């Protein structure tokens, strides 16, 4: 009657929750949201199967419907739920539980593609890049300091030596014939 917009009292739970990029110690959970829901964020709960402790992750990026799960244990069963967060505050119901199992580390390494880059390799590349940047910055600063010292010496050499002249004239006038200057002036 009032238009095509559907007004609901609550958000629908995310759908099509899946696991991608599954490794022995990490995974990426992805999901979709029903059309028309005004969502400002997501809440992801991660739980080891048969363990009461939960990891609760709030994701505020609404453009990508995914979240990295890290620090997982190999050969372990996990359960993941996703909830949508609305502007007014309440969360949606939990998505259907998604169960998955992390593989053994050796299985992940054996199936690694030769073109695939691991997080450890990326970290090593970043550290090498950071080291190069630091070295370049230090070399640049050394160059700036050397140029400053060189310019300072040139400026000092071109400056008139007025202080040296004053010191010379006061020592020349320190004789009894010149009573206004020097250490030997007479007290009369």
TrEMBL record:
Domain (Fibronectin type-III) ranges: 13-105
Region entry Disordered, spans: 88-117, 159-188
Membrane-related topology note: Single-pass membrane protein
Record-linked SMART domains: FN3
Pfam families referenced in this protein's UniProt entry, alphabetically: fn3
Biased composition annotated in UniProt, kind: Basic and acidic residues: 96-117, 159-169
Organism phylogeny: Eukaryota, Metazoa, Chordata, Craniata, Vertebrata
Name of this chain's protein: Fibronectin type III domain containing 5a
Transmembrane segments: 131-149
Organism per entry: Oncorhynchus mykiss (Rainbow trout)
